[in-house]
Amino acid sequence: MSFSDVIVRRDFPALRERSEGTVPVYLDSACMSLVPQAVLGAMEEYYRDFPGCAGRSLHRFAEEVSHRYERSRELCSEFLSLGDPRGIVFLRNATEALNLVGQGLPWKRGDRVLISDQEHNSNLVLWQRLAAERGIRIDVLALPESGFDLEQLRGQLHRSTRLVSLFHTSNLDGRSLPIREIAEVVHDHGAQLLVDGCQAAPHLPVDLRELRVDYYAVSAHKMMGPTGVGFLAAPFEQLSGLRPLLTGGETVEWSTLTQHALRPPPHRFEAGLQNYAGVLGTGAAIEYLGRIGRDQITAHDRALNARVSRGLADQPRVHVLGPSAPADRPSVYAFALDGVDPADAALFLDAGHHVMVRSGRHCVHSWYEARGLEGNVRASFYAYNTEADADALVNGVTELLERVPESAPKTTARRTMAAPARARPKRKR
Ligand SMILES: Cc1ncc(COP(=O)(O)O)c(C=O)c1O
Fold first, then answer.
1. Is 118 in the pocket of ligand 1 (CB under 6 A)?
2. What CATH number corresponds to the domain at position 140?
3. pTM of the model
4. 3-class state of residue 166 by DSSP
């Protein structure tokens, strides 16, 4: 029995066998991960047992939720080895965390931000807006096919570069950047480093004190937590320099009809009544991940990725994106198929093999646009996936390629998909 058979699979209600005898093969965790029962339970418990609002009323429901809300903050701080829960700001998602930094910094016209050419729209569009509205300039670091060139980074830092904003792990091809080394170069230059940790924090041990990043953005829904919760992690002093995105209830110490005094971070950034159930669910997700261990998760991702990579290595029509070694892109197997539209491939895999993957441009439109590419298919792995899942993907892609000749018009896969799927034996887990 493998790691996930023993440890986690049964904890995820979404992976249960369905009435028709099928078991979902969920390979889309880079988009959104599945949620274990422990997280569902924590959220339900809030609404069922102490549905109060934190930090306002003094009754027992409010006391309970206040205590647990702050406990989740401590867990987030421990999860990233930040060393100070006051540096955790709960927000709606990672996009909001990136925006809090981007819109909260005191920019001057002509200040520059450096990003890579492989950023999610969440780490691109906000800079374009700031360029239009506040006169900042955007520089773009063209990443090599694999690896990272620190000299290239040094060469692109200008005197007026104030911020470098990069992904930690790419949602496009699964590669990770050497954040510790990057932080050193950026700080030597006198700039700050913002890291989009959405795809890294769920899979890798992240130690922010060791990495020395200035701001780190995370979303709960990619790490077994609920949707609608993300957080920004930063040293407390760093947060004090940001202007809140929103103001209102919970953000102030006092107000008169003409003035107010903001609370210290992180509360000044958490305007209005919060998503308590979601934040408590996030804490439960972190505890759950802690029981598995992210070292274990990385090793597990690697093994599954290697299995798929081996299984499809002899298919000349399969083109894998990113680093050639699966160990360098553990959680993501992104691929294009000669002669098959990515959306058709995704539909075929789902309909015929119950394999759920993502297709398209993965919110990194700029990268595809620059290369004249239409998009591709992305399978992503997590702790609950099994070797059987990896094999289902390999079998599905192999069958698709057999059914759709390379020269066929791209719509053939869609028609093929409509044909009844080959009867398959019930899968054992
Ligand atoms: C690398 C990366 N950055 C940012 C985001 C946006 O995250 P959220 O939806 O939590 O704002 C995603 C989500 O897919 C992502 O993969």
1. no
2. 3.40.640.10
3. 0.93
4. strand
Residue 424 lies in a domain: no
Q: Which of 258, 243, 216 is nearest to 98 (CA)?
A: 216
Give the active site residue among 31, 53, 198, 363: 363
* Residue 264: exposure state from Cβ atoms within 10 A (0-12, 13-18, ≥19): exposed
For the chain, the domain total comes to 2
Half-sphere exposure of 214 (CA within 13 A, CB side): 25
Clarify whether residues 90 and 144 are in a common domain. Answer: yes
Q: Which atom of ligand 1 is nearest to the CA of 122?
A: 4
Judgement on whether residues 221 and 348 belong to the same structural domain of the protein: no
363-380, pLDDT tens digit by residue?
999 888 888 888 999 999
Of the candidates 103, 141, 145, the one whose C-alpha atom is nearest the C-alpha of residue 323 is 145
Q: Which of 43-57, 104-118, 232-246, 364-378 has the lowest mean pLDDT?
A: 364-378
Give the domain CATH number at 303: 3.90.1150.10
Is the CB of residue 202 below 6 angstroms from any atom belonging to ligand 1?
no
Full 3-state SS string of 317-370: CEEECCCCCHHHCCCEEEEEECCECHHHHHHHHHHHHCEECEEECCCCHHHHHH
206/304 same-domain check = no
Contacts of 77 (CB under 8 A, 6+ apart): 83, 84, 85, 87, 88, 233
Dihedral, 391, 397, 400, 401 alpha carbons, nearest 10: -120
The CA 247 to ligand 1 mean position distance, Å, reads 24
The answer, yes or no, to whether any atom of ligand 1 lies below 6 A from the CB of 198, is: yes
Distance CA 129, CA 279 (A): 29
Confirm or reject: Cβ of 161 under 6 Å from ligand 1: no
Q: Which residues pair with 261 in a beta bridge?
A: 254
28 lines ligand 1 (CB under 6 A): no
Q: Measured in angstroms, how far is the CA atom of residue 260 from the centroid of ligand 1? A: 34
Residue numbers of the domain that contains 275: 38-291
**What is the residue with the minimal CA distance to atom 7 of ligand 1?**
94
Q: What distance in Å separates the CA atoms of residue 338 and residue 319, rounded to the nearest whole number?
A: 8
Would you say residue 6 has pLDDT above 50? no
Give the distance from CA 38 to its chain's centroid. Answer: 20
The answer to whether residue 76 is catalytic is no
Q: Please say if the pLDDT value at position 7 is more than 70.
A: no
